[in-house]
TrEMBL record, chain A:
InterPro entries linked: Cu-R_B_prcur (IPR007939)
Any single Pfam family the record assigns to this protein: CopB
Protein name: Copper resistance protein B
GO terms of molecular function: copper ion binding
GO CC terms in record: cell outer membrane
Signal peptide interval: 1-25
Record keyword Signal present: yes
Highest taxon of the lineage: Bacteria
Keyword Signal: yes
UniProt keyword terms in alphabetical order: Signal
GO biological process per UniProt: intracellular copper ion homeostasis
TrEMBL record, chain B:
Key words, A-Z: Copper, Metal-binding, Oxidoreductase
Protein name: Copper-resistance protein, CopA family
Organism: Fodinibius roseus
Occurrences of domain Plastocyanin-like (ranges): 68-171, 240-344, 476-597
GO molecular function list: copper ion binding; oxidoreductase activity
InterPro entries linked to this entry: Cu-oxidase-like_N, Cu-oxidase_2nd, Cu-oxidase_C, Cu-oxidase_fam, Cu-R_CopA, Cu_oxidase_CS, Cu_oxidase_Cu_BS, Cupredoxin
GO terms under cellular component: periplasmic space
Keyword Ion transport set for record: no
Length: 252, 607
C-alpha cells in the first residue's frame, strides 16, 4: 500500500514537472477537415467496347468509351460512341460532355451537351443536343444509362443502355448488353424515324488478363425498327444486322 | 527538482529490474534480460530508454525489403520492418527522438498510449507532422503497461512497413506468468504502390476480389440446395446490389501476409523449451483490410491481455484479430515438436505463418486455407437468413459439438439467444449517397466469433469472453450518449460516419473533459471495421460492469451495435477512425475534441 502511494506521489511529481516543460506548451494546429484523401479528384477512362464487327460486308470498327474527372459526388463525365466502316469512307461519332451529380448511392443524374458527326466520302454533317440522363447501377446489378436528348432543331429523342456482368470464372466474364433508342420526331436527314428506332442485343465474353485489360469476343445483333428501318432499306442497307465481334475492354 | 525526481525514479526502476531479473534467473538461467522479447532466433534491435533522460532515437527512412525472395521498397525505422521493438517501463518519462529521412512528411502515433495530445502523432490534429530532414521530440510519461504498437499516421506510409511493436513492462509485478515472450507482428505487404491500390478500389468495385461466386459455384449450390433456393439467394444479393463475397477490399491477390516481417515461405521462427510458458504478443499492424484468424494447431492458447489491458484468462483454440488490436496469449507446449502459428486472412485469400519449435529451423505442418466464407443476410441487418437451411445447419453443428467442451456450449447458447434477440431498429436517416446500405436491424453479436468462424468445432474467442482483470476507475453511469454509424459505399469507395466523409464535417465531435459518456457504434455496412479512438479507453459494454474490458480498437462486425463507456480524462484533440488505412483516407475519420468547461483543450490534469 505504501509502495503504491509512493508510486502515485512520485508519478504526480514527475507529471507536474513534465507538464511545465516547454514541449507541452506546443499548440496543436487548428481544426481542419482537409487532412485525408477523401476529397480527392480522380481521373477515369474506359473503353468498354473497342471492337471489330464482322457482319455482312460492312465490318465497322466500333468504339464505346467513357470516363470522368472529378470527386466522389460531382464529376465531369464524357462519353464517346461511334463507328467507322472499314470497307468505305463512312462513319459517325457521338460525343457527350456532362456534369454528373450523385443523387443516390448508386445513381448519378447527368446533364450537358451532345455533338454528333457523320461523314461519308462526299459529305459530312453534324448536329448538337442538350442532354439530361441518369446513369448508375440498378437493382439486380444492371448498369443502366438512359438519357433524353433535345436537338438544336427541337427534335426530341431518348436512348437506354443496359449491361450486366457475371463471372463465369474469376477472370472470364459474360456480358449481355441491350440498347434501344426512340425519337418523337422524324429526322430523315439522319435516318431517324419517329417511334422506336432500333434494338441492339449483344453478348460478350471477356478474359481479364488484368482487371484493366480484357480482350473479348462476342455477338451483336442490331434490328432497326419502323420508319428508321424503312430509311435504312431505302438507302440499300439491311434493317437487321448480325455480326461477330472481337475487341478489347480497357481502362485506367 | 525534476532531476531529483528522475533520480528517484531511476533507482526505483533499477531495483525493480534487479528483482525481476532475479526472478527470471530462477525460472530460466539461460535467457538474458531483453533477449526474451526479441524477434525470435534472428538478431533484431530492441530499444530501451537510455541515459538520464530516457532517450530512444528512431530514424525513419526508405529501405529495400526482401519478402520471400522478392525485393520491394519499404519505409522502415532504424533500417527495420517491422520497426524495432520499443521496450518501456511504466512510470518512466521518456523522450523519443524521431528523425525523418524521407522526402515527405511523416509521423509516429503511439497506438493505445494515453499521453498529452500534442505527443499523439496525428498530423493536422495533434501536431504538424515531421518535415523531411527534421527531428521531432516526443516526450511523455508512461502511465500504463502492456502490449502496444506504433505506426505512421501520414498518408499510406503504414502500408509500406512503417509500424513496430511497443511493450511496456508494468511498474508492479506482472499478473501474467511466463518464461519467455515474443511479439508477433502480423501485417499485409504489397509490392504495388499503395496509392494505386487505393485508386483501383475507387475506380473498380471489388478490384482485388478473385473469390466471387462464379458460374461453377452457382451450379454447385444448385446441386446442394436446389435451383429455387439458389436462385432466390443469388437474386436477393443482386437485388440489394451487394456481393456475398465482399469480405476484404484488398486481398491476397496483391498482399503477402507477414509475421514479424517474414512472408509465409520465410517461416518466422520462435523457440521454446518443453514445459515453458510462452507469451505471444500478437499485434495486427495491417494497413489494408486484413483481419486475421489465428490458431496454433495442437496448442491451446490462453488469452491474458487484449489491447494492452489484462483480462481474466480465457482458454481458446482460435481468435480473430482486427487491425490495430493486440492479443497476448500464453501457450505451454508439452511436446518437443514444432507448432505452426497460422494466421489466415478473414477472406481466406492467404495467410501469415511462423513456427514455434524447440530448435531453430524446424517447421510444423501448414494447414490448408479453409473455404472462403459468404456474407449472410444477418450481415445485411436482416432478421432471417434467406438461406434458412444454412443457418440451421450451422447451429446444429454447434450443438453437436456443444457437449464436447465448455467453451462451445457457451457459444451455442449464445447463438440460441441470438436467434431470439430483439435487435435495435435503424432510424429514418438513410445517410445519403455515401451509404449504400443501412442495418435495418442492429445486432449485439458480442457472442459471435465473426464470419467464417465457430462452425467447425473450434473454440473461438468472442468479445463476450473478455473481462478486465483490473476494475475500471470510473463507476459513474453514462451521463449522455453519442451514437455514430459506420457507413460506406463500396461502389463509389466512399467511407464515412453517418454518411458524411471527414471533409464534409465542419468541426470536431465534442466530448467534455471528465464526463462519463456512452459511445454507441453501429455498423451500417456489410464489412468489418476496426474503430480506433485515440487518447482514451473505450470500456466495451459486454455485461461485466466495472470489469468491462478496456479497448483502444473495437472490431465491429456487419450490422453490429456496440457501446462503450468513455471518460475523456485527457484534454485535447484526438483522432477517431476506422483503422483500415484506405477507409480512413476515404473519409471514415473524425476528430474528437475534449475541452474543459472553459472550452480549453490545453493543460493536462491526470487526476
Amino acid at each position: 500500500m505504501i509502495n503504491r502511494t509512493a508510486t502515485f506521489i512520485l508519478t504526480m511529481f514527475a507529471i507536474i514537472a513534465f507538464t511545465q516543460s516547454s514541449v507541452l506548451a506546443q499548440k496543436a494546429p487548428p481544426f481542419s477537415n482537409d487532412i485525408m484523401m477523401d476529397n480527392h479528384t480522380y481521373v477515369f477512362f474506359m473503353a468498354d467496347r473497342f471492337e471489330y464487327n464482322m457482319n455482312s460486308g460492312l465490318n465497322p470498327l466500333v468504339l464505346d468509351a467513357q470516363g470522368y474527372i472529378g470527386k466522389d459526388l460531382n464529376k465531369f463525365w464524357f462519353k464517346a460512341e461511334g463507328e467507322a466502316l472499314t470497307a468505305e469512307a463512312e462513319g459517325e461519332m457521338e460525343l457527350q460532355g456532362l456534369y454528373s451529380k450523385a443523387i443516390s448511392a448508386y445513381f448519378d443524374v447527368q446533364a450537358g451537351i451532345r455533338y454528333d458527326v457523320a461523314y461519308n466520302a462526299d459529305d459530312s454533317q453534324s448536329r448538337g443536343f442538350a442532354v439530361i440522363g441518369l446513369q448508375g447501377l440498378a437493382p439486380y446489378l444492371f448498369e443502366l444509362d438512359g438519357a433524353l436528348f433535345v436537338s438544336e432543331a427541337g427534335d426530341i429523342s431518348a436512348s437506354l443502355e443496359a449491361e450486366y456482368d457475371f463471372p463465369i470464372t474469376q477472370r472470364l466474364w459474360g456480358q449481355p448488353r441491350f440498347e434501344t433508342s426512340l425519337a418523337v420526331q422524324e429526322v430523315e436527314q439522319w435516318g431517324v424515324g419517329s417511334g422506336f428506332n432500333n434494338v441492339q442485343l449483344g453478348f460478350r465474353l471477356r478474359y481479364e488478363i488484368k482487371r484493366e485489360f480484357a480482350p473479348y469476343v462476342g455477338i451483336s445483333w442490331n434490328r432497326k425498327l419502323g420508319q428508321t428501318a424503312d430509311f435504312t432499306r431505302g438507302e440499300g442497307g439491311d434493317a437487321s444486322v448480325f455480326g461477330l465481334v472481337g475487341g478489347v475492354r480497357m481502362w485506367f | 527538482m525534476s532531476d531529483n525526481n528522475n533520480n528517484n525514479m531511476d533507482r526505483r526502476t533499477f531495483l525493480r529490474y534487479a528483482g525481476s531479473l532475479a526472478a527470471f534467473a530462477g525460472a530460466s538461467a539461460v535467457l538474458p534480460g531483453y533477449a526474451l522479447a526479441g524477434f525470435g532466433s534472428e538478431k533484431r534491435e530492441v530499444l530501451t530508454p537510455q541515459g538520464p533522460d530516457n532517450v530512444i532515437d528512431l530514424t525513419i527512412g526508405r529501405m529495400p525489403k526482401v519478402i520471400d525472395g522478392k525485393r520491394g521498397e519499404a519505409i522502415g525505422i532504424n533500417g527495420s520492418v517491422p520497426a524495432p521493438l520499443i521496450r518501456l517501463k511504466e512510470g518512466q518519462d521518456v523522450l523519443l527522438r524521431v528523425k525523418n529521412e524521407l522526402d515527405e512528411t511523416t509521423s509516429i502515433h503511439w497506438h493505445g498510449i494515453l499521453l498529452p495530445f500534442q505527443m499523439d502523432g496525428v498530423p493536422g490534429v495533434s501536431f504538424d507532422g515531421i518535415e523531411p530532414g527534421t527531428t521531432f521530440e516526443y516526450r511523455y510519461p508512461v502511465r500504463q503497461s502492456g502490449t502496444y504498437w506504433y505506426h505512421s499516421h501520414s498518408g499510406l506510409q503504414e502500408q509500406l512497413g512503417h509500424y513496430g511493436p511497443m511493450i511496456i513492462d508494468p511498474a508492479d509485478e506482472d499478473p501474467v506468468e511466463y518464461d519467455r515472450e515474443y511479439p508477433v507482428v502480423l501485417s499485409d505487404w504489397t509490392f504495388e504502390n499503395p496509392y494505386n491500390v487505393l485508386e483501383k478500389n475507387v475506380k473498380m468495385e471489388g478490384y482485388y476480389n478473385y473469390q466471387r461466386r462464379d458460374v461453377g459455384e452457382f451450379f454447385n449450390d444448385v446441386n446442394k440446395k436446389g435451383f429455387g433456393s439458389t436462385m432466390k439467394d443469388y437474386l436477393s444479393w443482386g437485388q440489394m446490389r451487394m456481393s456475398a463475397t465482399d469480405l476484404l477490399d484488398v486481398t491476397g491477390a496483391t498482399y503477402t501476409f507477414l509475421m514479424n516481417g517474414h512472408g509465409p515461405d520465410s517461416n518466422w521462427n520462435a523457440l521454446f523449451k518443453k514445459g515453458e510458458k510462452v507469451r505471444l504478443r500478437f499485434i495486427n499492424a495491417s494497413a489494408g483490410t486484413t483481419a486475421f484468424d489465428v490458431r496454433i494447431p495442437g496448442l491451446e492458447m490462453t488469452v491474458v491481455q487484449v489491447d494492452g489491458q489484462n483480462v481474466e484468462p480465457v482458454s481458446i483454440e482460435e481468435f480473430r484479430i482486427g487491425i490495430a488490436e493486440t492479443y497476448d496469449v500464453i501457450v505451454e507446449p508439452k511436446e518437443e515438436k514444432p507448432f505452426t502459428i497460422f494466421a489466415e486472412s478473414l477472406d481466406r485469400s492467404g495467410y501469415a505463418r511462423g513456427t514455434i519449435a524447440p530448435r531453430k529451423g524446424m517447421m510444423g505442418a501448414v494447414p490448408e486455407l479453409r473455404p472462403r466464407p459468404k456474407r449472410s443476410h444477418r450481415d445485411m441487418g436482416m432478421m432471417m437468413d434467406m438461406d434458412g437451411m444454412d443457418m440451421e445447419g450451422d447451429s446444429m453443428m454447434e450443438m453437436d459439438h456443444g457437449d464436447m467442451d465448455h467453451g462451445n456450449m457457451d457459444h451455442s447458447d449464445m447463438n440460441m439467444s441470438a436467434m431470439k434477440e430483439t435487435p435495435v431498429k435503424h432510424g429514418p436517416d438513410k445517410h445519403g449517397p455515401g451509404a449504400a446500405a443501412i442495418a435495418q436491424n442492429q445486432f449485439d453479436r458480442m457472442g459471435e466469433p465473426g464470419i467464417g468462424l465457430g462452425n467447425d468445432g473450434r473454440n473461438v474467442l468472442v468479445y463476450n469472453d473478455l473481462k478486465s482483470l483490473e476494475p475500471n476507475i470510473d463507476e459513474r453511469p453514462a451521463q449522455r450518449e453519442v451514437e455514430l454509424h459506420l457507413t460506406g459505399n463500396m461502389e463509389r469507395y466512399m467511407w464515412s460516419f453517418d454518411g458524411k466523409q471527414f471533409h464534409q464535417v465542419d468541426g470536431p465531435i465534442e466530448f467534455e473533459h471528465n464526463e462519463r459518456l456512452r459511445l454507441t457504434l453501429v455498423n451500417d455496412t456489410m464489412m468489418e471495421h476496426p474503430i480506433h479512438l485515440h487518447g482514451m479507453w473505450m470500456e466495451m459494454e459486454n455485461g461485466n460492469g466495472i470489469y468491462n474490458p478496456r479497448k483502444h480498437t473495437l472490431l465491429l462486425q456487419p450490422a453490429q451495435r456496440i457501446s462503450a463507456l468513455v471518460t475523456p480524462r485527457d484534454k485535447g484533440r484526438w483522432a477517431f477512425h476506422c483503422h483500415i488505412l484506405y477507409h480512413m483516407e476515404r473519409g471514415m475519420f473524425r476528430v474528437v475534441q475534449v475541452a474543459d468547461e472553459d472550452g480549453n483543450i490545453y493543460g493536462q490534469d491526470y487526476a
